[in-house]
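Please fill in the sequence for the structure shown.

STRUCTURE ENCODING:
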């Protein structure tokens, strides 16, 4: 049961990494410093004040960069692999000691990295649709939604992890449908 709960927390944190790379790691660090979360062996560095400060600075920089027109699109090329790494680390940091080291890393890479990658790819697609249809004017709305999603998923992953997994699945289905609908609208709209 502990393994499944750890994976649910990992999925929620990984999905949050797909929205913003540093927000979930910052939440994990704050939770570690306050004693609300104890990271797995090898991830004790999350509980270091200097790491929390560095993650806070990185989070502020990442959030600000996503509000700069066109920089947000460029940042997505860097954020995609970074989110997969962060998702893997976040999942590994909450994994259960019940699994072997190999199984833990395999699950973290597949579940954590995969979840973060899928979420990130959908945010890239949503931003591309937004840039294509509004010239980037609506991108700050996308960025705000991603930030809210990252914060909520990160915090709720520790409180109600199973519910977060269900929310992630539902959100992914809705996002994919929205992106497909927008692309179809663009295809069927005659060029002026």
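FILLED IN BY: designer on duty
SEQUENCE:
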């Amino acid at each position: 049961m502990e393994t499944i709960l750890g994976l649910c927390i990992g999925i929620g944190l990984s999905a949050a990494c797909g929205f913003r790379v540093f927000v979930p790691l910052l939440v994990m660090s704050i939770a570690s410093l306050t004693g609300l979360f104890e990271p797995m062996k090898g991830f004790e560095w999350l509980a270091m004040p200097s790491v929390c400060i560095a993650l806070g600075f990185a989070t502020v920089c990442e959030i600000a960069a996503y509000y700069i027109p066109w920089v947000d699109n460029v940042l997505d090329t860097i954020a995609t692999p970074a989110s997969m790494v962060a998702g893997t680390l976040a999942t590994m940091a909450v994994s259960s000691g019940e699994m072997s080291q190999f199984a833990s890393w395999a699950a973290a890479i597949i579940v954590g990295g995969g979840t973060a990658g899928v979420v990130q790819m959908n945010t890239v697609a949503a931003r591309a649709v937004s840039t294509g249809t509004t010239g980037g004017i609506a991108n700050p709305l996308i960025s705000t939604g991603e930030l809210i999603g990252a914060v909520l998923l990160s915090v709720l992953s520790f409180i109600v992890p199973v519910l977060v997994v269900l929310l992630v699945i539902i959100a992914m289905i809705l996002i994919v449908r929205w992106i497909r609908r927008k692309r179809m609208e663009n295809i069927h709209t005659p060029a002026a």
